[in-house]
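pls design
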């Protein structure tokens, strides 16, 4: 799963506060992992390795942490008046709305709940394999976004769009949810700036490719790469994909529900407000967000084992989910079958007349239940678009 949210200046402070004071603390089970600089734009500024204290705040503010040079300035906050419908009276009312500048984007890559449980409760080798697969997967998704959605504008009224030289971003891996359930996920904080290849100037990102055009494809690429890597590493098998995501076979629904207390909080809020949809869920996540407590991992693991065993996924059942299958990349015939299905009567054009490259990536990733490497998904999408049957 991939969610993307805009960040206002100052909101990045949460990530700096929540990390462990060092790797010793993290591996001892206290706090979260330190942030790591990623992205071609970060490399251009010499930002590599662990994010030093205060550096994320500076880059989000548009300042190069190394030199102190200002790269760009955010627009000033402003207040506008919009009309909304009063839910009680049904009348149109004028409401003031404060528009804060967009200082960055929070991209959250989350593994399925069954994978979080493997990471939390599996042995050292299993935890390492899950963490490595997760890292491979979100790196693949970020590489796709950096190539397709790192866009800036220049010229009068920003009419000229151009591919910039890469993201300036920091990645923070977390192991738990705010409800203290196992929840392996990584926040990739992308600063709202990138360098133009035209003149070397640092400009704001065009948010539309990131928020709308390529977010879904990146999320599906993350999930399909994760399945492939885990299938290779520990031999798990997968249930059917739902919106690009699949749970591990053998994980009872009861245990998945038991360890989804944070999701339950969000769904309850949506039910109370009568809202629905992706953006409503994002708003609900913010409104129901409690302060994340410091995690004593050793205490939590004991509690997690007790709850998992109570709901039917003890040590024997968890071990039984491993090594069930042997992963093999689809052969040429299988790839041809995928292409044929997607260009057929019940393929991508069954309910629409056109589709994009991102749509093709989504469809191929969804169809690969056992997983597929992200670069192979992209190659298949390009092959599909080059097929004579696609007019």
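designed seq:
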């Amino acid at each position: 799963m991939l969610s993307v949210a805009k960040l206002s200046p100052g909101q990045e402070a949460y990530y700096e506060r929540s990390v462990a004071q060092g790797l010793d603390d993290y591996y001892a089970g206290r706090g979260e992992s330190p942030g790591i600089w990623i992205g071609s734009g970060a490399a251009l500024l010499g930002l590599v390795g662990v994010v030093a204290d205060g550096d994320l705040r500076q880059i989000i503010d548009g300042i190069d942490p190394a030199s102190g040079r200002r790269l760009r300035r955010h627009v000033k906050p402003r207040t506008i008046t919009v009309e909304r419908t009063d839910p009680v009276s049904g009348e149109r009312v004028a409401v003031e709305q404060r528009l804060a500048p967009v200082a960055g984007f929070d991209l959250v890559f989350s593994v399925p709940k069954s994978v979080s449980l493997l990471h939390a409760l599996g042995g050292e080798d299993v935890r390492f394999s899950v963490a490595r697969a997760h890292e491979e997967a979100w790196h693949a998704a970020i590489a796709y976004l950096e190539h397709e959605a790192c866009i800036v504008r220049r010229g009068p009224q920003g009419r000229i769009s151009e591919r910039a030289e890469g993201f300036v971003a920091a990645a923070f891996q977390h192991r738990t949810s705010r409800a203290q359930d196992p929840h392996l996920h990584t926040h990739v904080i992308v600063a709202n700036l990138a360098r133009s290849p035209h003149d070397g100037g640092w400009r704001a990102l065009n948010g539309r490719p990131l928020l709308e055009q390529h977010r879904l494809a990146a999320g599906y690429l993350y999930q399909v790469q994760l399945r492939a890597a885990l299938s290779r590493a520990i031999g798990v098998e997968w249930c059917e994909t739902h919106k690009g995501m699949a749970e591990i076979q053998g994980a009872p629904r009861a245990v998945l529900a038991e360890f989804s207390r944070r999701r339950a909080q969000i769904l309850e809020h949506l039910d109370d407000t009568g809202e629905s949809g992706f953006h409503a869920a994002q708003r609900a996540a913010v409104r129901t967000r409690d302060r994340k407590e410091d995690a004593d991992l050793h205490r939590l693991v004991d509690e997690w084992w007790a709850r998992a065993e109570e709901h039917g996924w003890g040590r024997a059942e968890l071990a039984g989910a491993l090594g069930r299958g042997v992963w093999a990349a689809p052969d040429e015939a299988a790839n041809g079958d995928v292409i044929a299905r997607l260009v057929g009567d019940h393929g991508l054009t069954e309910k629409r007349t056109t589709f994009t490259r991102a749509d093709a990536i989504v469809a191929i990733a969804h169809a690969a239940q056992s997983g597929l490497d992200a670069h192979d998904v992209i190659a298949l999408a390009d092959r599909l678009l080059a097929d004579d049957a696609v007019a």
